[in-house]
């Protein structure tokens, strides 16, 4: 590890999860695992310049704003991350090679290269375990209260990746349980000019379905993952427009009055 990268194995993390509208009674629980680009000062930005921490490699740009708007419109609880996915990706199995990335797109992450096992375990215990434990508790509470619960994870994607342009405005990702995703895709594709991808620009085969698979599919709950191109989420007004669109599509897919 480069000598200028300060990694403090004893770093005390605050809660890796924030919950908005915890008592929301709508039929959806929202997740936003890549909501934040925050890295504690003791990690020295993982050796990256500040400009790289504003890029999509550190977080899903615009996703938290979109998820917050959706939470309001859907009256949905929203559980979102408070740390950058560069420390640990909450939407990956902790045994996966890209749970803590050494390289993201065209960028090496110096503070993650040849990471010691003790630091990996610390990040899992401080970030992954409490995040998913609290999501489990939220779902258990809703189900115990008799509230219908679909699990929907909100993400954004960069318009181009490794120099290749992406044609989609939005993608819907699903694995074995396709009912909610297929209904959402039908609604999105009914909108003129909108390019909606099915398991694009990512799919479960890329390992990106971990949270929804764990908290939704494995429980037999309606579930899907949404990806919106981040240049379409540039400000609050744009995020609101997409939230309104996704509210309509989700309510129609779930058979709920809008």
Task: Describe the model.
The protein has 258 residues and is an alpha/beta fold. The protein has a single domain, classed as Zn-dependent exopeptidases (Aminopeptidase), CATH 3.40.630.40. Helices cover 29% and strands 17% of the residues. The chain has helices at residues 63-74, 117-144, 179-189, 210-215, 236-254; strands spanning 17-20, 28-32, 78-81, 103-104, 107-108, 150-157, 160-161, 164-165, 170-173, 196-198, 223-229. Strands 1-3-2-6-11-9-10 form a 7-stranded mixed sheet, sandwiched between helices. α1 links the parallel β2 and β3 (78-81). It starts with 16 loop residues before the first strand and ends with a helix.
Output the radius of gyration. 18 Å
Class derived from helix and strand content: alpha/beta
Oligomer kind: single chain
- What's the main sheet like? 7 strands, mixed
How would you describe the shape?
globular
Strand neighbour order, sheet with most strands: 1-3-2-6-11-9-10
Q: Give the fraction of residues assigned to helices.
A: 25-40%
> Helical element count?
5
Give the topology.
Elements lengths: L16 E4 L7 E5 L30 H12 L3 E4 L21 E2 L2 E2 L8 H28 L5 E8 L2 E2 L2 E2 L4 E4 L5 H11 L6 E3 L11 H6 L7 E7 L6 H19 L4
Parallel strand pairs: 2-3, 2-6, 6-11, 9-10
Antiparallel strand pairs: 1-3, 4-5, 7-8, 9-11
Helix pairs in contact: 1-5, 3-5
């Amino acid at each position: 590890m480069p000598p200028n990268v300060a990694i403090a194995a004893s770093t005390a993390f605050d809660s890796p999860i924030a919950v908005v509208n915890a008592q929301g009674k709508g039929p959806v629980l929202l997740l936003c695992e890549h909501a934040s680009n925050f890295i504690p000062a003791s990690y020295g930005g993982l050796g990256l310049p500040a400009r790289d921490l504003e890029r999509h490699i550190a977080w899903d740009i615009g996703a938290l704003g979109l998820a917050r708007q959706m939470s309001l419109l859907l009256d949905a609880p929203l559980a979102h991350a408070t740390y950058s996915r560069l420390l640990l990706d909450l939407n990956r199995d902790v045994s996966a090679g890209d749970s803590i990335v050494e390289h993201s797109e065209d960028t090496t992450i110096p503070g993650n290269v040849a990471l010691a096992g003790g630091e990996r375990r610390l990040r899992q215990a401080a970030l992954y375990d409490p995040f998913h434990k609290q999501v489990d508790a939220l779902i258990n509470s809703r189900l115990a209260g008799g509230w219908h619960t679909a699990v929907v994870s909100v993400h954004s994607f960069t318009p181009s990746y490794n120099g290749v342009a992406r044609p989609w405005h939005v993608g819907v990702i699903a694995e074995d349980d396709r009912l909610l995703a297929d209904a959402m895709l039908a609604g999105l594709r009914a909108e003129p000019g909108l390019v909606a991808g099915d398991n694009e620009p990512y799919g479960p085969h890329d390992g990106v379905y971990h949270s929804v698979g764990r908290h939704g599919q494995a429980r037999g709950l309606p579930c899907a993952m949404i990806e919106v191109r981040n240049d379409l989420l540039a400000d609050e007004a744009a995020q609101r427009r997409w939230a309104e669109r996704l509210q309509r599509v989700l309510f129609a897919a779930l058979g709920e009055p809008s």
